[in-house]
Design a protein that fits this description.
globular; about 75% helix; mainly alpha; two-stranded antiparallel sheet
Amino acid sequence: MTNAGLYSVFVSFAAALGGFLFGYEIGIINSVLEMDPFQLFYGLSNLVNGELVKTDESTSRTSNIVSFFLLGCIPGALFMALAADILGRKKSIWLGAMFFSAGAMIQALVPASDSISSRVGFVMAGRFVGGLGVGILSMTVPLYIAELAPTSIRGRLTTIQQLMITIGIAFASIVNAIIITVYKSAAKDDNSQWRLALGIQAAPGFLLILILFLLPESPRWLLSKNRDDEAAAQLAKLRQTDVKAAEVQQEFHDIKQSIDAERQIGTASWGELMRPGIRNRLVIGVMLQFFQQWTGINAVMYFSSSLFIAMGFSRNTATTVNVVVQALVNVFGTLPGMYLIERAGRTQLLKWGGIGMATFMWIICIAVNLFQSASAGLTPDAYPASATAYSLIGLGVGIATASNWINNYILSAVWPYISEALLANQYAIFGCTGLAMAAYVHFQVPETKGKSLEEMDEVFGFKSGAAASELKA
């Protein structure tokens, strides 16, 4: 790989710490929900004859604690749909990291003196604030990476976001396992166990804030703000060559020409999203995000500790060994998808991933991580950021990302009840959705492998050469 490629990988991994934060949150809350002190502190269980017994409010409180994080993600993503083009990519990522870190601290510092209902409300507020941050990051980071990446490896680099999510889950699972082991002999009302687990979330958030000082701003965004000299300098830095190099000048010209063409069409508006060649991209982005959630990975990730306990594993094994193994499967399952996305293409990964998930959902929940991570885990996030028209990229990616969080919120809010009612049959829902995803991708989703951001209008049938008056909303 060239120096430019290596530098792009570094920038992508650094920015994708935003994905690491989300993954870390998933991995942390999964095991924290089953920590004895957490169960007692929030009234999820009572201590009866030395054993934990679920309270009547356990299911609803668990649902609220998990889902309020995702509820916060929705306005975070929607806000960035409008604000990302104003603030710029780096400032948007900084804002998301700040919200996430603040949310982590709020969750860790819930006052013990409050009533149980107040405690639950306090931690829900902290999770909502953290969710705002992840919503901002989930919309901005893939966009930032897509705008910085060379066309030849853009798909692979945008999937780094998903890889970092899985690494975050695995890292958090290992940290939780260590904390649970260290506190194994602690009293059941020793709240420092879960406070430490939740508070540690702030550390990668602060790390992302510091790393941002080393990262370049998006040349495309700078050009859209008429900051041509800065854009050329940042582009040269990204490609690790001189600003006067032919490749830099050509890419600079292509981006500028694309932005100038979009300006002739008019200012981005909500109405333009309904134009032929634009509307289909928005629908595809929303549908892929729907399938990403309803093929089941986050239901497994959020509640697998409870699932393992229900299967007969001890609480200690379920919250340590089992979730760590599951998280590592998720990480390694991402790697084939990253390798194949520029070879097999996006649609092939989605189709065969859907069929694979549908098959394995009927067998065992852990096996599905291999297919989920390598297809529906990474491709829906990579697709909207690289397929949307530049003048509408903030709105389009923001709406697609918000739809992800809406589906994620609905899933996390209702799944404790569905799981309780359907038991093992719950996975039949995910199996059917996996097949539906494969069929939808086969018939409706065009391949974008090897296409630059400036070529997407042609792929989706948008006539950028038409008169501006015909294309304005």
